[in-house]
Amino acid sequence: MSTYPATPLASKTFTYPSGIPYQVDTDTNLIRGVQKGYNLCNSTTETQESLCQTSFFTSLDDFCLWAPPDANSTVADTEGEMVAWCSKPGYGTRLIPAGTLTGLQFLKTPDYIQIVGFMDQTQINMASGDYGGEMDPHGADLRGNPMGGIMFSQAWNSSWEQVIEWTNFMGSNSFCLKACDPAGANAASYCQHIYDRIGCAYNAPNAAQDLVFEACDADNADFPGVYTDTAGAVVTYTQPAESLGAITTMPYTATVPASSNCVTYTSSVLFSALASVTASASGSAAASTGTAKASSSTAKASTTGTSASASSTASSGADALVVSGAASLMGVVFAGLFLA
What we know:
This protein is mainly beta. It is about 10% helix and about 25% strand. The relative contact order is 0.18. It comes from Hypholoma sublateritium (strain FD-334 SS-4).
């Protein structure tokens, strides 16, 4: 049986809305099976049971996250089957239930947009306490995670553009979503997908805070994995193989880019269209057993904090490092759980 598709997902291009096929992943002789959902989505597919795998990301109030189709699921088990959960109606996807999102920071830079946030992940079918993993349009077999998952944006033009390079880390009641300008010369470098074990703090440096909803302009961060050492030399970090065990130290700390023109918003205004949206019956059942609702955390901090206790199921920062057994939010506990 073949391992790779005839055409990698990241090499497939489509126009929205007229050029979207029912499924973009049509290979059937590959080891991971067939695409879970579909890409041709409209008002008839916009339910809380939708299997739409076409995603959108433009602004603070207009984005979709990849999350499981079934309640109480882990990212490790469902990364290839994730479906789109969106912050506004009209795309034919599932909608993020009211109250799920508890804090967001949106940054628009010269080369990419990103949103980092806090959430009650049980409301979008993620198991309580799941440290999660990363989704991107590549994957070890080039079919993407999720398989067939594509994204569009109006961040750079009034018309919809397909985003070729993007990453989405989900877990520990938080997330980061980054989409790179398809016309940018360094899209693949700013949305690098090979650093799946070091999380949001290194892939999407930010200053997000729980209970705060803000949008800012910002400078570009350094390329993920690239830093300047104490001698002034530019160095590219090499992520160690999972077989070597947990990453316990990092040679650098990612710098959060300077931001400006920040505007804060009220979540009820941003997401008024979600006011009546609830989790599906199965999702609600999972949520009722959850113990790690982000908004109930007593330690609300920037997502650039250092670490949190491994016994905590909801960290207050989007760190990416495990040190002496302490599990940081969005950290290397992802190792071995998903394809890069």
